Amino acid sequence: MVLQIKKACKNFGGLSALSDVSFSINRGEIFGLIGPNGAGKTTMFNLITSMFTPTSGEIIFNEDNINGLKPHLITKKGICRTFQNIRLFPQMTAEENVMVGEHCRSKSGVFSSVFRTKSQRKEEERIRSKANELLEFVGLGGFADIVSDSLAYGQQRRLEIARALASSPQLLLLDEPAAGMNETETSELFHLIKKIQEQGVTVLLIEHDMPLVMKLCDRIAVLNFGKKIAEGTPAEIQNNSDVIEAYLGSEEEDLYA
Amino acid sequence: MLAELINPYYLQVASFILINIILGVSIYITLSTGQLSLANAGFMGIGAYTSALLTLNFDLPIIVGILSGTLLAGLFGILIGIPTLRLQGVYLAIVTLGFGEVIRVIFVNWESMTKGAVGLSGIPHMGRELLNTLKEFGFDPKILGLQNNQFVFLAIFLILLGVTISIITFFRRQNRSRVGRAFAAIKLDEKAAESMGINITYYKVLAFAQGALVAGFAGALFAHVLAYISPADFAYHRAVEILIFAVFGGSEVIWGPVFGALFLTVMPEVLRFISEYRYMIYALIIIIMMAVRPQGLIDVNILNWLKLKASKRRQKHGTSNQKSM
User: How far is Cα B129 from Cα A181, in angstroms, rounded to an integer?
Assistant: First the structure.
């Protein structure tokens, strides 16, 4: 098991964003986290990446409790994420964005950088060539020198994935990667995520595009109002009455509506 | 021939330009992580007073004084940098401005040590000390056809020029490395930078301390070039002046504050009649720049345009494969 969430709770003041959510992700699988808007999916991402600390509960990554660890150390341990609303470094080129992603896998400091020591130049060379490989991998081969701000929307999404992959994660968190994409882009994204899985990276995916989620995921957990209402394979989830109710509303509610 | 060209007055102005360029670089470094610090006048004062007092009271060599002043300023940078980590934008500016004032007030009131508002005079002069040392080895500026005075100012100018070029080279190299990318990432999006595995606490304090070190260094040089310092040299006016270098020249690239410092130091000297109104002009510059060109005169686009022009010209002259800049 790569990741285990044990009874995670998160309250914001009196509001309970997540309560008693537990699930675990096996190595190498694509795990989907779905649910209506405001169900607490992104909050869960923020707990896993330690942007927030859980009110109670435990988050176990590779047998280590990672509660309360600083976000940059989480990345170093091997968890990296993308953002729902793209957060690239706008004035940097695509290549530089990915190179930033390799920060925690490199170590040159001030003095080796200023005196351009042999190991620093080698490392810089390695970072740059890996960045270009990753750009190639996500299909942005010719865009290394383009400022990320002027890339098309779908390209920015893929660049964010490349940047996250640059930190060599074991677990990749994707927050609505298909949001705002057209059908062609979505199908490209499908193949990209499959390719990432083939590289041995475990993927945790938040997504609203149900056809994509059902095709892509090995297992799925469903959140509603901060609680887990179902977990299982895509087929099980599709036939789960609680899930259908959460997404479509129950018949009784419809009567009174 | 050479001797006639060397005018001590011009050299002195040039030396102040160089010190101001170093100060401009100091604010640029902290700004390159998105932190606006107005404490650099205070750090400059710490560097200047430390070095002056050590050389005056303990007869230490100037170089030891300068290094101690620089390090102490850097230490204060770390001490201020850590508690202000959570502050951003205008709040950080206010706190750091307050810190600068506290430092100035300490200089004014710690009379037993700093002689208060009167200031310290008779600080060993970098150029003269150098000349005296060289004379012990039997050197005479007349060998170069220079008078003592000319030699002194020329020596200061050359030392400062070397120092300034080294500092700029240092930070240009740092910028184009892992450290520089971390700085830029923090400036552009702190949360995203943190998620990409960058230890933002470390890099923000590092930038703050580097800014303080460089400002303290400039202050120590200032003390030994002018041979006289008083608390007024490191007051609010100085903080604003350093800020203007970055606002006017720009803070996206290191050449911005360098150009700002150069232009704004030369201007009052060339246009003598406006030097009385310089603070009014500074205010105008801030307002106009904020309205018209908030990134400052020199930004990445301007630099690229200049590089393009330079390379075109070179192509015309047929030496096209020289590396630019």
Answer: 70
A70 plus A5 within the same structural domain? yes
Whether A92 sits inside 8 A of B188 (CB atoms) is: yes
Q: Is A89 on the interface with B (CB under 8 A)?
A: yes
Distance from CA of A45 to the nearest CA of B (A): 11
Tell me whether residues A100 and B180 touch, CB distance under 8 A. no
Q: How many CB pairs under 8 A join A and B?
A: 96
Structural domain range at position A60: 1-78+169-257
Interface touch A51/B198, C-beta < 8 Å: no
Distance from CA of A240 to the nearest CA of B (A): 35
Specify the pTM.
0.89
Q: Is the ipTM of this complex over 0.95?
A: no
If you search the block for the tokens 């299909």, which residue do you land on?
A139
Residue of B nearest to A93 (CA): B181
Q: Which of A133, A165, A197 is the last residue of a domain?
A: A165
In a domain, A83, yes or no: no
**Contact at CB, A103 and B182, closer than 8 angstroms:** yes
Contact A123 B178 (CB under 8 A): yes
Show pLDDT as tens, one digit a residue, over chain A (257 residues). 889 999 999 999 888 899 899 999 999 999 999 988 888 899 999 999 999 999 999 999 998 999 889 999 999 999 999 999 999 999 999 999 999 999 999 888 899 988 989 999 999 999 999 999 999 999 999 999 999 999 999 999 999 999 999 999 999 999 999 988 889 999 999 999 999 999 999 999 999 889 999 999 999 999 998 899 989 999 998 888 888 888 777 655 555 54
Q: B37, B20, B24, B45: which is closest to B78 by C-alpha?
A: B37
CB B293 within 8 A of CB B251: no
- Domain membership of residue A84 (yes or no) is no
3-state secondary structure A107-133: CCCHHHHHCCCHHHHHHHHHHHHHHHH
